Amino acid sequence: MRVDSVPEATLRRLPSYYHYLLRLREKGQEATSAAQIGAALGVHHTQVRKDLAVTGSQGRPKVGHRVDDLIASIEEFLNWNNVSDAFLVGAGHLGTALLGYAGFERAGVRIVAAFDASPRRAGRKVQGVPVLPVEKLPDLARRMHIAIGILTVPADEAQAVAEMMVGAGIQAIWNFAPIVLDLPEAVIVEDVALYSSLGVLSRKLAVRRKAASGKGSAGTGP
Amino acid sequence: MRVDSVPEATLRRLPSYYHYLLRLREKGQEATSAAQIGAALGVHHTQVRKDLAVTGSQGRPKVGHRVDDLIASIEEFLNWNNVSDAFLVGAGHLGTALLGYAGFERAGVRIVAAFDASPRRAGRKVQGVPVLPVEKLPDLARRMHIAIGILTVPADEAQAVAEMMVGAGIQAIWNFAPIVLDLPEAVIVEDVALYSSLGVLSRKLAVRRKAASGKGSAGTGP
DNA sequence: TTTTTATCGAGATGTTTTTCTCGATATATC
DNA sequence: GATATATCGAGAAAAACATCTCGATAAAAA
Ligand SMILES: NC(=O)c1ccc[n+]([C@@H]2O[C@H](COP(=O)([O-])OP(=O)(O)OC[C@H]3O[C@@H](n4cnc5c(N)ncnc54)[C@H](O)[C@@H]3O)[C@@H](O)[C@H]2O)c1
Ligand SMILES: NC(=O)c1ccc[n+]([C@@H]2O[C@H](COP(=O)([O-])OP(=O)(O)OC[C@H]3O[C@@H](n4cnc5c(N)ncnc54)[C@H](O)[C@@H]3O)[C@@H](O)[C@H]2O)c1
């Protein structure tokens, strides 16, 4: 039984509609249709309608949806209008890039502090965000009621750090390490599996090359 | 009709199996089973079997698969044993993080040069990779037969840069900008939609909170 | 005012993906 | 050598997801 009966595929598409709508608004367009959104983003228009329906937004025949309303509906649905404070652990290459990114606030996440085990990293500020020794995380997370943790430590450390986060009351983890965390079911984990992307890319490219250089179909062998 | 009849979901899971297998090998384990992999990664064991089957690897009853063989099969299937040279465009926060990452070579991708429009960035080396003026990309890409482009420029610039890449013979684009590129069908595009992750995370967290604070089911309204 | 048309939304249908079921088999134990 | 068991792999069933179809409706055009 699903608590939330909205397909996850829909949740994944909504942000892309959202960004498209922001661009439409910037260009001064006031209304749009499922057909327009679908054509721009490569999604079938009926699918767009179903997706938008879950946000509660209603369109009108012949006019479509007001861009402003749609943006507001998606924001509300994803709770992107309420910014939550987040902690980031692992202020290395990737962690630093995330700290330097302004776009997450629009997606409901504000990184208020970063943590690192290395004394070289801790103590500084990166992009205005303080980097603290990781030992300070549990106490601070509890006191600040932090709900979101961003995990950008090496894979070997990820499980231990995740457990520390959960122990400190963090409820949702955005995990960039290429590992599946073993945590209580109640914890929300979203993996950013960059390698998955590369798997698809690499395989498709290989198939394309094979097809180009003579033999037709794919597969490991005949 | 699909040229390549392997489900994309399978392609996305294989890298995660791969990393798990590397860890098993490091620990000295010689054989494993679909059940073990599935339990570790939260995938049903029959699903794991189907996924591994596409790589051509065969297991034996009562023993399972040799870890080494599986690793080799996945590498071959994804073409991760042949490293392709790639160009990265946009040596900003995110681009720099990617340049500093050693792990991609194992996934068949070696970034051999980066490009940027800003004169402040171009001319330096980042993590040993030269950063060049973006104007030099087309000629170099052609001469070096670059097949993969990594796109880490702001969303506004992404379409134009992608077109430049395609014009220079690049066949596959790994796109980090939050925009859907409009390119010839033949070009392979893999989007890393970080916001999709955040959509799911944020929504789940909101639903969880709503559930906790009284009312049961989710939804925008009654 | 009537007709045309773009769009919506609901439900039916089709496709893809995941899970379940079960017989086969190689190894280990008795 | 016979029996038990962990594992595989193939096919059936179920679930999730996407697409198709069609009547309704509001705006625009005739
Ligand atoms: N950089 C990338 O482009 C990239 C791409 C894909 C995946 N990843 C993944 O992201 C993670 C980070 O990658 P990176 O390139 O930023 O690595 P990195 O080595 O640059 O940074 C890791 C940081 O984590 C810190 N750290 C280590 N153990 C810690 C602990 N127990 N507590 C707190 N901090 C700790 C280190 O001091 C370091 O600053 C890795 O899991 C990597 O696999 C990175
Ligand atoms: N940094 C993150 O954590 C993050 C997260 C999600 C998405 N993204 C996306 O990744 C992209 C890059 O983000 P960032 O934070 O690294 O931005 P950034 O501004 O730090 O870097 C962008 C770089 O691209 C260069 N550039 C701009 N136009 C160019 C052009 N036409 N040709 C070549 N180079 C050009 C700029 O000089 C700059 O160095 C953006 O699309 C952003 O939305 C970034």
What does this protein look like?
The structure is a homodimer of 222-residue chains. Chain A is α/β, with parallel strands linked by helices and 222 residues long. Chain A has 2 domains: 3-77, Orthogonal Bundle (Arc Repressor Mutant, subunit A), CATH 1.10.10; 84-195, Rossmann fold, CATH 3.40.50.720. In chain A, 43% of the residues lie in helices and 17% in strands. Chain A has 8 helices and 9 strands. In chain A, the strands form 2 sheets. Chain A has a 7-stranded mixed sheet. In chain A, strands 1-2 form a two-stranded antiparallel sheet. In chain A, strand 7 (148-151), helix 7 (155-167) and strand 8 form a beta-alpha-beta unit. In chain A, helix 1 packs antiparallel against helix 4 (67-78) and helix 2 crosses helix 3. Chain A starts with 7 loop residues before the first helix and ends in a 10-residue tail after the last helix. The relative contact order of chain A is 0.08. The interface between A and B is large, with 74 and 73 residues. One nicotinamide-adenine-dinucleotide (NAD) sits between chains A (89-95, 115-118, 121, 134, 152-155, 157, 161, 176-178, 194) and B (97-98, 100-101, 103). The structure holds a DNA duplex (30 and 30 nucleotides).
What would you call the quaternary organization?
A: homodimer
Can you list the ligands bound to this structure?
nicotinamide-adenine-dinucleotide
What would you say the CATH architecture of the largest domain in chain A is? 3-Layer(aba) Sandwich
CATH H-level homologous superfamily name of the largest domain in chain A: NAD(P)-binding Rossmann-like Domain
Number of domains of chain A: 2
Structural class of chain A: alpha/beta
- First and last CA, distance of chain A: 43 Å
- Global outline of chain A: globular
CATH class of the largest domain in chain A: Alpha Beta
